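Hi R.,

Here are the chain sequences for the assembly we discussed:
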Amino acid sequence: MNLLTIKNLYANAGEKEILKGLNLEINKGEIHVIMGPNGAGKSTLANIILDNPQYNVIKGNIEFDGENINKLKTDERAKKGIFMSFQTPEEVPGISVTNFLKTAQSSRTGEPVKIFKFKKELEENMKKLDMNPSYSTRDLNVGFSGGEKKKNEILQMLTLNPKLAILDETDSGLDVDAIRTVSKGINMYKNDDNAVLIITHSTKILNDLKVDKVHILVDGKIVKTGDANLAEQIEEEGYAKYI
Amino acid sequence: MKADLTKYENNKIKNIYNIKNHENYSYKTIGLTEDVIKDISKKKNESSWVLELRLMALKKFYELQMPTWGPDLSELDMSQIATYVKPKTNMQRTWDDVPDEIKSTFDALGIPEAEKTSLAGVGAQYDSEIVYHSIKDELVKQGVIYTDFDEAVKKYPDLVKQYFMKCVPVTDHKFVALHYAVWSGGSFVYVPKGVNVDIPLQSYFRLNAPGAGQFEHTLIIVDEGASLQFIEGCSAPKYNEINLHAGCVELFVKENAFLRYSTIENWSKNMMNLNTKRVIVSENGKIEWVTGSFGSKISMLYPMSVLNGKNAKCEFTGISFAGRGQNLDTGLKIVHNAQNTSSVVDSKSISKDGGVCTFRSNVLIKPKAKHSKLTVDCESLMLDSESRSDTIPTNTIETDDVQYSHEAKIGKISDEAIFYLMSRGISEAEAKAMIVRGFANPISKALPLEYAVEMNNLINIELEGSIG
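And here is the predicted structure of the full complex:
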């Protein structure tokens, strides 16, 4: 079942043209990986799928779950089930992780959160992600280490249970153990009805995952698509032959 | 359920601006002349010393200059301001005796309800006079006095004379002189040595008459080793003409005593709020100011703390929120006048739709205030590029032996943070409100729960309509 279809997408970051005719198709149940040199447009792609106002679509279509979402705002796309784990998650003082997640979940579902169930699940998920429970009462990302911020993103993914999770360099800057924890989180989340799009520079995060497709993104276009072996090959040889 | 409650609370707060009671006064004076002052004094049945004081203050008012800095006050025409508006009732001891129309206003503001659940005493002023005052019997038995100011002058003249005008002198500035010329109403509190008043007292000031001024005087003495939490609330309906608030608050915190003075100021946006507040803190005493300024067209308000005894402490936690057409010029003054005195200032301001917030901090550390500590932290959040926020610190440090830090941050609401919250399914309006509430959170935490809720609702209302 098709979940995300991007057709001939051109997009700018500010005035600068970044995506130049990108095509991508992701089905339910799949894990996709996007690799590519710095500045190729990987983060732009992630941000444009969620309509970050700092980026804009010039032409092309984004379809999600059978519907064109070009005109939808960020929160509406999130409510349809798109999620992004941020490369540098924002620090928001004065809002606790728990309150933030409660607000997000009730916005996403349109129903009030069942407090007891919510709390129990949150505690369990935090335990599985090796997070100190005290983080749930701390201000959102404020003073979190790089690793804790990334785990907090995965925690949000597990709580909100989206249809498509885009992980924008979630593994960058993480130690081996933390990367393993993130992979574990992805495996906890993953099922036949949802999909994951991982943007990464390294194959470490992929070790424990069953990757379906690897795409090489160069200069705003996907220039090569392959299976998990393609990631290994990039790890060894670099992007030279695709540039 | 929760959404309904919020809606209800929001409506309640909107009512604050919408409830207008007509022709509720039995007597009213307009303008500011000797005759007007004599008239007020006669109507209030005052002793001659009070009238003399008023006339002296009036003279000072005409001698003193308008402030040469801060917001433009040229719209204020004292000859047009109703300086004394006596409501159609005397001071009552039970709500049942307060006339229905006035009572319904205070009901809508939630005052009688709060009295039942979370307060140890309540004063309610309507225009120029206190219409209701009560205090729990246990406190009376312990010698605590909480009464309206007129009664205090009559019943405890010696106590009043000992402290009245000793903290804020009539010569301080033009609007203090004005205050002393026409003051009426306000609360008087005396907490005897060693008595702890655990549950707060609250005085609420409601200005109903259009074009009127409110000039209440609050005098609080917390004697040695005693403690008190006092809450001051104020609001008014919205009119097209200028209303004026020039109250005065004099506080005395004696040796080893503690006072927390909290204010949620919610004047309507035709109000000029030119209020004066000051505390004198003795050895080992502590003052905590918690203030939220939301309303008014123009505010000039700089609570001053004089740390007069060794180890005296001051904590100031304040927030102001200026929307369209509002110019909130607020801040504080602190004088460190003894050894080991310390003060901590945490101030926040939010401006939107062209609103202007100015924060002035003026700290003086005197030569004898060795080993004093001062921490000032101010942060401003602008919700758009047409709004303004300024921080103007003035520090005069006259001794070397001082620990001092000052931090000021001014910034626009972060588009990235809004996007981050929206990416989780939260609407743009709610995302902005969350960020603003989060910004204000340190202040909410310092407030009693009901007031924290009120403040969050005020923020929600301020943000309504401004976000499309």
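The CA atoms of residues 30 and 187 of chain A lie 12 Å apart. Chain A touches chain B through 28 residues (CB under 8 Å).

Let me know if anything looks off.

Best,
T.
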